[in-house]
Design goal:
Blueprint: E1 2-3, H1 5-14, E2 19-24, H2 27-43, E3 48-53, H3 60-68, E4 77-82, H4 89-101, E5 107-113, H5 118-121, H6 124-132, E6 134-138, H7 146-156, E7 160-161, H8 163-173, H9 177-191, E8 195-196, H10 198-209, H11 213-222, H12 225-237, H13 242-264, H14 269-275, H15 280-290, H16 295-312, H17 320-331, H18 336-342
Parallel strand pairs: 1-6, 2-5, 2-6, 3-4, 4-5, 7-8
Helix pairs in contact: 1-2, 3-4, 4-6, 7-8, 8-9, 8-10, 11-12, 11-15, 11-17, 12-17, 13-16, 13-17, 16-17, 17-18
């Protein structure tokens, strides 16, 4: 059975299948489909959950042992298998076929992958799941569909607005569904459950949206130091928490270090991004940054971030905003020494 995310709830209410495949690159929708399945499984008595991450060095015998294991206490188990490449290989296919050939009565197998192309969807293991279980294909939301999607998400939060308000949310989040969902959550917290005017939405997300921390990070990854300094000043003036800024910056630094490390061992950039669950919409940003940032520089900047972290906690003296400026400019391509003097 092949479904879209909107159809999954109806299928689950009719009864749990024994195997599910959720595939797609829209991480918010993939995660929500996965969470919905987990919720239904738990309500049906699947109290145990085992998670597996099938990277290149994954031992498929571990999953096979769990599939064939008969519980002495009849515990129902949800087995969650994430395949970052969407290609389980011979051993993985054999494990999935073993499960389908003799489906354990007390287990459900959930497989999560990125988007599968046309050739991957024709493979034997995918076809077998489609025939014997449920395949949920998550497609990106088209630009023309975004206002309708935002309207539905607002309604889910018991909110509504004018067409102008919808357009403002769409424009400010630029097709990033996760950012859109976060903005709707913020609106709900600010205003409660009611109809919102354009002015109220603008006051909540419009005035500062151009200078929010996510765009600051993007400008740093793109290598635009002047824009970074201007945005950081706006964030400081608006009273943004330094701990939140530091978290966002260190998250990007760690992701870049992981990517650089994989690529230094011969991994292709696209493959490394898949392995680390990097959104396709952000891959070009990371690729641009890695053209100018070496791994030693990234590690040095992360170490500097650790010092700033101590300053935010009052465990070390220093100007936190000056330190954040240095980290941002370092990400943008300046040396740490240059970044310090630029301030």
């Amino acid at each position: 059975m092949k479904l879209n995310p909107q159809q999954l709830s109806t299928q689950l209410k009719q009864g749990l299948a024994k195997i599910y495949l959720i595939c797609g690159d829209e991480h918010l929708l993939v995660q929500e489909s996965r969470d919905l399945l987990v919720e239904f499984a738990q309500s049906a008595g699947y109290s145990e959950r085992q998670s597996y991450h099938a990277t290149s060095d994954f031992n498929w015998d571990t999953l096979l042992a769990e599939i064939t294991l008969q519980s002495l206490f009849s515990d129902k188990t949800l087995l969650e298998l994430r395949i970052p490449t969407g290609k389980p290989g011979k051993q993985g296919c054999a494990a999935i076929e073993t499960f389908l050939a003799n489906v354990p009565p007390d287990k459900i197998l959930l497989i999560v992958t990125p988007k599968l192309d046309a050739s991957q969807q024709k493979t034997k293991w995918v076809k077998a799941i489609e025939q014997q279980g449920v395949m949920v294909t998550v497609w990106p939301i088209e630009t023309a569909q975004l206002p309708s999607w935002v309207k539905q998400r607002l309604a889910k939060a018991k909110l509504s607005t004018t067409p102008e308000g919808l357009r403002l949310i769409v424009e400010q989040t630029q097709g990033n569904l996760l950012a859109c969902d976060q903005e709707i959550t913020k609106l709900s917290l600010l205003y409660g459950e009611r109809a919102l005017s354009f002015e109220e939405i603008h006051a909540a997300i419009g005035d500062h949206a151009r200078f929010d921390l996510y765009q600051l990070v993007d400008q740093a990854l793109l290598g635009h130091p002047e824009a970074c300094v201007r945005m950081l000043g706006q964030l400081q003036a608006s009273g943004t928490e330094t701990t939140l800024l530091l978290w966002a910056l260190t998250r990007e630094l760690r992701q870049l270090i992981h990517l650089s490390s994989l690529m230094s061992r011969g991994e292709r950039f696209e493959s490394a991004c898949t392995k680390l669950f990097v959104w396709k919409t952000r891959q070009s940003l990371y690729q641009t940054a890695l053209r100018r940032l070496t791994q030693p520089k990234l590690l040095a900047t992360l170490q500097h971030a650790a010092t700033i972290d101590l300053q935010t906690k009052g465990l070390q003296s220093g100007n936190v905003w000056l330190g954040l400026n240095e980290i941002v400019l370092s990400l943008a391509g300046c040396s740490l020494a240059t970044a310090a003097t630029t301030c």
